[in-house]
Specification:
By secondary structure, the chain is mainly alpha-helical. It has 27 helices and six strands.
C-alpha cells in the first residue's frame, strides 16, 4: 500500500485540477454550444501571467493569483462569449476551426513573448506537511485539492441557488424562454464564459510548478481534462468533477504499474484512452448535440468555367515544370510543397465533401512516412513502397471510420485527436514506426536515368508527378458517383439511407481514401529528408485544419484550397526565413479565427455589402463620375428605382 499511496495522492491532486478545468469547459459548452479546443491555451496563458507577476515582479502569490484569475475571467470571458456568439448557427466544424485557431494563436503569442524553451516555475505553495503511512502529504497538495473542491462546490451552489445560476442551467435547454424571464441569454452565456476562463487560468497556475512553464505542454495537459468531460458525458458537472479525479488517478497508477517499454508510454495517453472508450461505448443519444446533422464546413464556391479550369491547370503545370530553373537553391521548399498537396488534399476531401472532421491527419502521414522508410530500407522498389505506404494507412483509416459512423462534429474531432495523441506517446517510439531514436528516413527513387537519390531536380519531378496524380485522383473522386454520395452525406444522411444506400459503407470508404492520400504525403516527406516524431506531433493536425480553414474564405473548391494550403504551409515559410514555427503558429491561428468568423457570417456580410452598394449608388450617380458619363452602377440593385430599393430593403430586413 505504501508504494501505491504516493501515486494515489498525486493522482487525486492532479485529477482535481483536471476536474476544475473540465467544469469550466463543460459549463461553457452547455451554455454556448461551442466546445472550446482553446481551453488549454487559456490555462497556459494564466500560468505565464502569474509567473510574470509573482516571479518576475515579486508580487506575493495570493494577490498575483487573484489578479490573474480575475483578469482572465473579467476580460477573457466576455471576449470569448462575443467570439462564440459571432458564430451564430454555424456548423460545429466552424466552431472547431475557430477554437483551434484560438488554441494556436494563444500558444503562438506565449512563445513569441516568453520563448519556446521550458522555464522552471517555482513552487509557491508549502511543500512540508504531515506523513501518512510514511508518505508526506504536503500542505501545497492539500491547498490545491481544496481550491479545486471549493470551486466545484461553489459552482454547484451558484447554479442551484442563485437566480442567474438557474437561468444558466435553463439557457442550455431553451434560450428564448430564458429571455421571457427577464434574463438576457447573452448575459447568461457571458457569465458562464467568465467562470470557465477563470477556472482554466486557475488550473494552469496550479499545474505550472509541477510541469514547468511550457506553453504547448501546459496546453496539452489541460486538454487531458477532455477525459473527465467524457465521463460526465459533456453535460453533468458533478460527474465531470468525478471524471477528472478518475483520469488523474488512472494516469498516476498507470505510471506506477506500467513500467516496461512500450507500456510505460501509456500513462500520458490515459485520459485520451478514457475519452475514446466513453465516446465509443456510450449511446449516442446520451451525448448533447448529437442530433445535429453534419454539414459542410463552408458553402461551396461556384464552379469555374471548364475552359478556365483547364487553362489554369495547364498554366500551373507549365510553371511547376519550370520551377527547377527558376528557384535555384530553394527547390527543397517546392518538394516539400508536393507532399503538402497530398496531405491537404486528403483533409480537404474529408471536410469539404462529407462535412466530417479529422484531427489525426498528421498521424496517417506519420504511418506512411515510417512504412516508406522500412520498406525502402529492406530493398522494396520505390514506386511499390510508395503505394504500400499509402495502403498500409487504409486499415487505420477504417478504424477511425468506426466513430464516424456513430457521430460527427466535435465528438469525432475529439476521438481523432485522442487517437493522434495515443499514437504519439505509445506507438511512435516502437520499432513498428520511428523506434526509440524517434526518426526515420527513406531512400529516393532510382530507376534507369532517374537518379533522385543524388539529384534534387529529379526528386522534385518525382514528387511533382505524385502530386499531380493525387490531384487528378481527387478530381476523379469528386466528380464520380462516390463524390456525389459524399456531398449527399453532408446534406442529409437520412435521405441517402431512404434511397437504399449504405451510409456507413460510404463513410468507411471516405476515411480509407483520405488515409491513403495522407500516407502517400508522409511517404514523400520521409523520402525528402530524415523525419522525426516531433514533425508529426498531434498539434500539427490542428495546424493543418487551421490552414485549410483559412483557404475556405473564398469557397471550398477542393483543388484550389488544397493548392493554396500547400503554398501557405510550405512555400511561404520557406521563403520568409523569419517566419519560424512560433510565428507560423501565431499567424495561422489568428487567420483561422478570422476565416471561421467570416465563413460563419458570410450571408450577413454579403447582405451588408449589397445594402452599402445600393445606398451609395444614388450619391455616386449624381457625382463627378456620372457627369463625365463614365459611371455604371456597381451592383444590379443600384440601378433600380428608389421604390424598388425600398421593397428590396424591406424584404431583406
Amino acid at each position: 500500500m505504501s508504494s501505491v499511496l504516493p501515486f494515489l495522492i498525486t493522482g487525486l491532486v492532479t485529477g482535481s485540477l483536471y476536474a476544475l478545468a473540465g467544469l469550466g469547459l463543460v459549463l461553457t459548452y452547455r451554455t454556448s454550444g461551442v466546445f472550446n479546443f482553446g481551453h488549454g491555451a487559456i490555462a497556459a496563458g494564466g500560468a505565464f501571467c502569474f509567473y510574470t507577476l509573482h516571479t518576475t515582479h515579486g508580487m506575493p502569490w495570493p494577490p498575483a493569483m487573484v489578479l490573474t484569475v480575475a483578469a482572465f475571467a473579467l476580460v477573457g470571458g466576455p471576449l470569448l462569449e462575443l467570439l462564440t456568439r459571432s458564430l451564430g448557427a454555424a456548423p460545429a466544424a466552424i466552431g472547431v476551426i475557430v477554437t483551434v485557431g484560438l488554441f494556436l494563436a494563444v500558444t503562438g503569442v506565449l512563445n513569441q513573448i516568453y520563448g519556446a524553451t521550458i522555464r522552471q516555475a517555482d513552487q509557491f505553495l508549502p511543500e512540508d506537511g504531515p506523513a501518512v503511512s510514511g508518505v508526506v502529504i504536503s500542505y501545497g497538495q492539500m491547498i490545491t485539492a481544496g481550491i479545486a473542491l471549493a470551486g466545484a462546490v461553489g459552482l454547484f451552489l451558484f447554479l442551484r441557488t442563485s437566480r442567474l445560476g438557474v437561468a444558466m442551467r435553463a439557457v442550455v435547454d431553451n434560450p428564448s424562454l430564458v429571455g421571457l424571464t427577464g434574463q438576457t441569454p447573452a448575459r447568461v452565456r457571458r457569465v458562464a464564459w467568465m467562470i470557465g476562463s477563470g477556472f482554466a487560468a486557475l488550473s494552469g497556475i496550479l499545474l505550472a510548478p509541477v510541469l514547468g512553464l511550457d506553453a504547448t505542454l501546459l496546453t496539452l495537459l489541460v486538454v487531458q481534462a477532455f477525459g473527465g468531460c467524457a465521463i460526465g458525458l459533456f453535460k453533468s458537472l458533478p460527474m465531470t468533477y468525478v471524471g477528472g479525479l478518475v483520469v488523474g488517478v488512472a494516469a498516476a497508477l498507470a505510471t506506477r504499474f506500467l513500467t516496461s517499454f512500450p507500456l510505460n508510454q501509456i500513462p500520458p495517453a490515459v485520459p485520451f484512452l478514457i475519452l475514446m472508450a466513453v465516446l465509443l461505448v456510450v449511446p449516442v443519444r446520451m451525448l448533447p448535440g448529437t442530433r445535429t446533422l453534419p454539414q459542410p464546413l463552408a458553402s461551396a464556391a461556384r464552379p469555374l468555367n471548364p475552359r478556365m479550369s483547364a487553362g489554369l491547370g495547364i498554366a500551373g503545370l507549365v510553371f511547376l515544370l519550370l520551377v527547377p530553373a527558376l528557384v535555384g537553391s530553394r527547390l527543397p521548399v517546392w518538394i516539400d510543397a508536393m507532399s503538402s498537396v497530398c496531405l491537404f488534399g486528403s483533409l480537404a476531401l474529408l471536410i469539404w465533401t462529407s462535412g466530417q472532421m479529422s484531427l489525426c491527419q498528421i498521424t496517417f502521414a506519420a504511418l506512411g512516412a515510417t512504412t516508406m522508410a522500412h520498406l525502402t530500407g529492406n530493398g522494396v522498389p520505390w514506386v511499390l513502397a510508395l503505394l504500400l505506404a499509402g495502403l498500409f494507412t487504409v486499415p487505420i483509416g477504417a478504424i477511425i471510420a468506426i466513430p464516424a459512423i456513430r457521430f460527427s462534429g466535435i465528438y469525432l474531432a475529439l476521438v481523432t485527436f485522442g487517437f493522434g495523441v495515443f499514437m504519439r506517446y505509445v506507438v511512435y517510439p516502437t520499432s513498428w514506426m520511428f523506434g526509440q531514436d524517434l526518426s526515420a528516413s527513406a531512400e529516393r527513387m532510382q530507376v534507369g536515368p532517374i537518379e533522385a537519390q543524388t539529384s534534387e531536380k529529379w526528386h522534385y519531378y518525382v514528387a511533382l508527378t505524385v502530386a499531380v496524380l493525387t490531384v487528378a485522383a481527387l478530381v476523379a473522386v469528386n466528380r464520380s458517383r462516390f463524390g456525389r454520395l459524399l456531398r449527399g452525406l453532408a446534406e442529409s444522411p437520412t435521405m441517402l439511407g431512404t434511397l437504399g444506400l449504405d451510409v456507413n459503407v460510404t463513410r468507411l470508404l471516405l476515411f480509407c481514401v483520405s488515409a491513403f492520400f495522407a500516407g502517400v504525403g508522409g511517404a514523400l516527406m520521409s523520402s525528402q529528408y530524415t523525419v522525426s516524431a516531433t514533425s508529426f506531433n498531434p498539434i500539427q493536425s490542428l495546424l493543418l485544419v487551421a490552414v485549410l480553414g483559412i483557404c475556405a474564405i473564398a469557397g471550398t473548391r477542393l483543388i484550389l484550397t488544397t493548392v493554396l494550403a500547400a503554398v501557405f504551409f510550405s512555400i511561404v515559410p520557406g521563403y520568409a526565413t523569419s517566419f519560424d514555427a512560433e510565428a507560423q503558429t501565431l499567424v495561422f491561428g489568428v487567420l483561422a479565427v478570422v476565416a471561421g468568423l467570416t465563413i460563419a457570417n458570410r450571408d450577413r456580410l454579403s447582405a451588408w455589402l449589397r445594402r452599402e452598394a445600393a445606398e451609395r449608388a444614388p450619391r455616386v450617380s449624381h457625382g463627378p463620375a456620372a457627369a463625365r458619363g463614365n459611371w455604371t452602377p456597381p451592383w444590379p440593385s443600384a440601378a433600380r428605382s428608389s421604390q424598388e430599393r425600398e421593397l428590396v430593403g424591406g424584404r431583406r430586413s
